[in-house]
Every structure is written in C-alpha cells, then in structure tokens.
Amino acid sequence: MAQQVTYRVMIGGQTASSRLQESTCQLLALQVELTMDGVGGRCLLELSGATTTLHADDAVSVELSAGENPQRVFTGKVETVRIGAASQQVVASDGLVVLARLELEAAYESVQVGFIVRDILQQAGLTPGKVETGPQLTAYALHRGPRALRHLQELTALAGAELYTDDQGMVHFAAPQPGPAEHTFQYAQDVRSLELQAAPPLYDSIEVWGEGAASTQGADKYYWLVTDLTGVNGKAAVNASGQVTPGSTGQRPRYVSRGAIRSGEAARDMAAAQMKRVVARWLRGHLEVGETPGVEPGKLVRIEGLPADHSAATLLQGGRLPRVRRVRHTLDRQRGFITRLDFCNGDTDRQGQVVGRAELAHRGIAYPGGTAGAAAAGQRLSGSGAGVAHLGVGRTIVR
User: Does 332 or 66 have the greater pLDDT score?
Assistant: First the structure.
C-alpha cells in the first residue's frame, strides 16, 4: 500500500509543507533534478498565491519522503521568479551555476589535480565533498575566458572523475567506484518504466601522450621539448567484460594528447582513470520508480526479479549495474511522487527515441484513443513485461 507523501520546501523565509501547522504557503507542483551533465541541478516550484515576495539568491531547500520524516533532496538558490495571476513559478539552481559565471586566473606548480579543484571551489564559495586526488601536474594555469565550470570539466578528463552536487549542496569531483548496488528495485513491484541500452565505447583502449622531459631528464626539465615522448606515455585497455588493464593497448585505441601531463606516471594514471570512466557509462537508459528520495548521482542500482528470458536480464548479466547520472523527483497532483533515474546523457525522449503512450498520457499529451485509453494502455504495459519493445542491437524499452 502506498505511503503518505510528506514534503517541506523552505524558500526565502517561507515554508510550504505537508504539515499545515508549519506551512506559510501552498505547494502546487515540484520538480527537483541533480545531474552530472550540464550546469548542475535545478529545482522548479509552483507556489499558490502571488502575495509572497521572493528574490533572486534566496536560499532554497527541498525535503521529500514517502514516510513520516522527509529527507533533503535539493539545496540551492533562487534564479528566477515568474509571477502569475494566482501563483508563482520559481526556478532554483545549485552551486554549479556559480562556477558557470565565474572567471579565474591562477598558476600552479607541482600540485595534484585535486588541489586545483579544491582551490577553485573555495574561490567560488562552494563546499567540496569527495574530491579525487588525480595525477600530479608539474604546472597548470587557469586563465580568463573559459569559466570556472569549464576548467573543472577539463580537470575531470585528467582525473577520470565526474562533477556534480549532492542533496546538501556539496560539490563532488569523484571517480566512479566499483562495488555493490546502493539501491535495489523489484521489477514487478517498483518499476514503472525501464529503458536499457548497451553502449560499449567506439574504442577499446586509450593512449595518453604528454609533453616535456621530466621523466627522462628530471622534474626540473618538465618544460623541455623533446622528440622522443615515450617517457610521457600511458596506456589502458578494457575487455568485453568491462575489466580495465593498465599498460595495454587494444585493437581500436584512442589517442589523447595533453600538454598538462608532464610525466609518465601522470600519463599512466590518466589513461587508467579515463578507461574506468568509460566502463561506468557502458549501460544507458532510464528507470522510473515510485518515491525514492535517497538516490544521488554516481550511485549503482540493481533491478531484481527480471524474468530469465527478459532482454534486459541479458544486458545485466555478469553483475553489470547501471550507474545513475541524473536523478529527477517529480511531485504533482496527477502522478504523485515519482523518481526517475537516468543512466545516460540528456533526456532520452528528446533524442528521437520512442516514448510510451502511457508516459505521454501522464504528461497530458493527447494521442489517438484519448487520455483514458492511454492510461489503460499504461496499466497493461506496467505488468510483468508484456510490453517489451526491441529497438536496435542491445536496446530494450519497457513501458
């Protein structure tokens, strides 16, 4: 039986809550998103009434739960407020948008990537979470033009890390980690919509080339230009089962040149980290479930109870687990509290892929047969896997 949804939104000194005694305004609709892509997470709010005064940079926090105690799912600040006749629509963003506006100038010598990341976050006034150490850099410079967010994205390539914020507003610069799934969902009980796609990389190995003579002539000769770059070279390969082998080259290598890499050790570290990040993106698609406020980007999920002959079960063989890149919580009067987990970049339904009729009906989009027919189709397709469509090699869509 579904539990009672509870929520608490605190914004600019106002509170919209499922507990009437602490609520000063009414929440009409809510969507919260945390992501590893784009310019960070955002929150879309619609509040009843147009008398409450809200301003840009007002603090925003959102808590959701399917039980008695809501838990934090978003921390950020107001970006824009649109005032209508009887409601206000608010857009809030997390700390990454600050980095997208900030220009910095700095020079570093003999530091690790993680040191630069922490320095950038400190200058932006943001709180760092988990920050990977990354390879050692002999010299590195930040210059105006690219914003701080772009500099951090370049550093993720060096360290094989991902950049995102969590529900508390902390900024993480973290590499994907192996391990057991943090969240488990039952196919027949929890899954509302599922799409999985096998997306192995176009290359099976990476070869990193740096610059300088630090590896052969000493650290103080990092700025020398040499014709033999074998001393600043690193390799790593991945096999069909997703295992990364440092020091190896496959049949389809990708070659990367980075002037910031000035030692063989840094080149080897970057190659291995890059291939591990590729493996973490091997499965793409999305999973839509009921209220699940505790999921964050970077977490691994497991889907249990799939029939043995289900195509998705084949994709998940060998213990392969989808890794969350984006979390979206939606709370409205039509569908209640829904959590969507994306394992790929961007909205799958905005990339020309098939969207189930039931999902269109939930969004209020009409199609032949009417909304009622779509809802009925959604009930049929939400069962034990009867509505399975196969589109292309290794791709499964379940509605």
Answer: 332
Domain that holds residue 349: 297-398
Total number of residues shown for the chain: 399
Taking the model in full, what pTM does it have?
0.79
Contact between 219 and 193 (Cβ < 8 Å): no
Is the pLDDT at 125 greater than 90, yes or no?
Answer: yes
- Predicted pLDDT at 386: 29
Does any domain span residue 200?
no
* Domain match, 310 and 391 both: yes
Largest alpha-carbon pair distance within the chain?
75
Does residue 367 have a pLDDT over 50? no
Task: Establish if 290 belongs to a structural domain.
Answer: no
Which among 174, 197, 224 is the end of a domain? 174
Same-domain check for residues 131 and 212: no
- Kind of pairing, strands 253-257 and 205-209? parallel
For 156-188, the pLDDT digits (tens) are 988 999 999 999 999 999 998 887 889 999 998
Selection from 76, 46, 82 nearest residue 60 by Cα: 76
Task: Taking residues 372-394, report their average pLDDT.
Answer: 30
Q: Per DSSP, what are the bridge partners of residue 112?
A: 136
Of 347, 349, 342, the closest CA to residue 299 belongs to 342
Q: Judge if 85 and 134 occupy the same domain.
A: no
Distance CA 284, CA 396 (A): 10
Total tally of structural domains belonging to the chain: 4
Task: Pull the structure tokens for residue 367.
Answer: 């199609």
Going by the DSSP 8-state scheme, the letter that residue 323 receives in this structure is B
CATH of the domain at 126: 3.55.50.10
* Residue 83 and residue 108 in one domain: no
What's the pLDDT tens digit per position in 274-293?
A: 888 888 888 889 999 988 99
256 and 310 both lie in a single domain: no
Whether the Cβ atoms of residue 8 and residue 17 lie closer than 8 Å to each other:
yes
Return all residues near 322 (Cβ < 8 A) that are at least 6 apart.
196, 283, 285, 287, 300, 301, 303, 341, 343
Is 346 inside a domain boundary? yes
115 and 55 fall within a common domain? no
Does pLDDT of 25 surpass 80? yes
Q: What is the pLDDT of residue 326?
A: 94
What is the signed CA dihedral for 249, 251, 255, 261, rounded to 10 degrees?
Answer: -10
Residue 184, domain member (yes or no) = no
DSSP 200-232: --S-SEEEEE--SSHHHH-GGGTT---S--GGG
